[in-house]
Fold this protein.
Amino acid sequence: MKTLLTVRNILFAIPLIILLAALHYALPQVDVVRAVGVEIKRIDATDPDAGQTTTRDVYQLQMETPDGSPRVYRNEDNMLYFKFDSANLQAQIQSAAADKQLVAVRHYGWRLTLFSAFPNAVKAWPVEEGYRHIPIFNTLVLLAIAAIFFLLYRRATKAMDSARQLVETRRLEREAEAAKAVQAPIDRANEAKKKEEDEISAFINDGNDKKS
């Protein structure tokens, strides 16, 4: 039983971890950083099928946290976030970097140094010292996902209860049929015995009537 519970917990935990990782990657986050500069990197990519090399420009935003730690964001368009103004964002950060202005950067993705991966900046706006961002959008998304999971859980629970009730009903029916099958020979034997007793009693009574 413990093994079954462990396997069930593992099977439940794996998709949950994947979902949490996907949400952590995809949901926007906001960092309060100081604009330092911008950079345009030219990257060569080779198409293995066509055997051709293509070149594209990758915008990067150079930032630093208030305590001086470096932060780098890539600046690319993204249809999911309706971002089509990467060049404008590049110019905005370049202007803010002249005075090392404090800005809030909305971004998604992870910084993976091993793979030279950077989070993608979606939007930036100037803020004052002590600015605190309230993640309203993320809260609404998480509440919606929690509501969906709650409804699915309730439906699954009802389905499992109905299945258990059906199994219990069938078990009771089988037990009733088995008990009936056991009781049937007993009832037939009792009926035969009663019939025999009635016949004997009738015979005795009939004999007494003739003597009289």
About this structure: The two ends are 79 Å apart (CA to CA). Strands lie at 29-47, 52-64, 70-75, 102-108, 120-126. The CA atoms of residues 187 and 193 lie 10 Å apart.
